[in-house]
Recover the amino acids of this structure.
C-alpha cells in the first residue's frame, strides 16, 4: 500500500511513518521545514520526503498527481502546547485540511484517515461512544468537529472512504517535553519536585505506538466513519503520576494538591474502543499503563535525562 502521512514530523506522525515502513508500505511523508524533522532522523531517507507548511497544501498537487497514494493519514494541525485550544490558527488548519481532501480525491486516493479529538464529545456522557453527543467547548475541538462533518460528506460524494479517528490522551517517546507526562518524567529523573493537582481527574491514556498502529489499521482495513482511538481503561491522573513515581523511585517528589484544577478541565474522559477492535482486529502492544510508561521512562533515560 502506498501511503502519504501529513504532519510526519510531529509526535504521532513520526510513529505512524515508522509503523507503516515496518509493515512494508511505500511511504511519503509531508513534514515541516527545518529542525522539526528531528523525530524522523532514524527513518529518513526511507520514505519520500515532501516538505512544506499546512498552509501550502496546494504545493502538494504535482507530487500527489505523480505519486498517487492509495491512502493518506492526515495528522498535520496547529498543536502548540498551552495555545492550540483557543488559537485562531485552528481556522486555517481546517481550511487547509479541506483543500488537502480535495487534492487527494483528484489524485485518486481511495482511503483517507484524519485525526480528531475526544474533546469533540459532550464529556458529561462519561464513557464516550462514537454515536454519542458532541459539545466542543474550544475553538480547536469545534474546528475538528467541523472537519469531521464536512470531510465525511465530501468524501462520501466522491466515493472515497473517510475514517475520522477521535484520539484520546496519549504519551510516549518523542512527546513535547512541555506536556504533562514527559514533564513529570523529566522532573523525577532529575530528582526535582513536581507540583501537581490532587489528581482526581479521570483520563483514558494510550501509548503513542499503539495510537499509530490503530491509525495504520484504519487505513489498511478501509474503515469509514468515526472511530475512537482509546484504551477503554479509565485511570486517574494520580494513578498515572504515581505509576511514573513507582518506576522512577521518586513518588515522594510529586506534590499532590499543590496546583488547582483548571476551570475548563473535564472531570471524566474515557473512550469506548470496541469499534476499533472489532473492525480492525487491533490490540495494544502495551496493554497496561505501567508497561507503556516503563518503556517511555527508559526512552527518556536513554536521551541522557537521568
Amino acid at each position: 500500500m502506498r501511503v502519504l502521512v501529513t504532519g510526519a514530523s510531529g509526535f504521532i506522525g513520526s510513529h505512524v511513518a515508522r509503523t507503516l515502513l515496518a509493515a512494508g508500505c511505500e511511504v511519503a511523508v509531508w513534514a515541516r521545514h527545518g529542525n522539526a524533522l528531528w523525530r524522523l532522523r532514524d527513518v529518513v531517507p526511507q520514505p519520500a520526503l515532501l516538505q512544506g507548511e499546512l498552509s501550502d497544501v496546494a504545493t502538494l498537487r504535482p507530487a500527489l498527481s505523480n505519486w498517487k497514494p492509495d491512502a493518506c493519514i492526515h495528522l498535520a494541525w496547529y498543536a502548540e502546547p498551552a495555545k492550540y485550544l483557543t488559537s485562531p490558527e485552528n481556522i486555517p488548519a481546517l481550511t487547509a485540511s479541506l483543500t488537502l481532501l480535495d487534492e487527494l480525491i483528484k489524485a485518486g486516493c481511495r482511503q483517507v484517515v484524519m485525526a480528531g479529538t475526544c474533546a469533540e464529545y459532550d464529556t458529561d456522557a462519561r464513557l464516550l461512544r462514537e454515536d454519542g453527543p458532541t459539545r466542543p467547548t474550544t475553538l480547536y475541538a469545534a474546528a475538528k468537529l467541523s472537519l469531521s462533518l464536512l470531510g465525511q460528506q465530501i468524501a462520501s460524494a466522491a466515493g472515497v472512504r473517510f475514517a475520522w479517528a477521535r484520539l484520546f490522551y496519549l504519551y510516549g517517546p518523542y512527546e513535547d517535553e512541555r506536556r504533562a507526562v514527559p514533564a513529570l518524567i523529566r522532573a523525577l529523573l532529575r530528582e526535582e519536585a513536581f507540583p501537581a493537582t490532587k489528581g482526581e481527574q479521570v483520563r483514558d491514556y494510550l501509548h503513542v505506538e499503539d495510537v499509530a498502529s490503530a491509525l495504520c489499521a484504519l487505513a489498511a482495513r478501509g474503515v469509514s466513519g468515526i472511530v475512537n482511538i482509546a484504551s477503554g481503561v479509565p485511570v486517574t491522573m494520580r494513578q498515572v503520576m504515581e505509576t511514573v513515581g513507582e518506576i522512577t523511585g521518586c513518588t515522594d517528589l510529586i506534590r499532590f494538591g499543590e496546583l488547582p484544577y483548571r476551570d475548563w478541565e473535564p472531570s471524566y474522559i474515557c473512550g469506548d474502543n470496541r469499534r476499533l477492535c472489532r473492525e480492525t482486529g487491533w490490540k495494544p502492544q502495551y496493554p497496561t499503563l505501567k508497561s507503556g510508561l516503563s518503556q517511555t521512562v527508559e526512552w527518556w533515560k536513554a536521551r541522557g535525562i537521568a
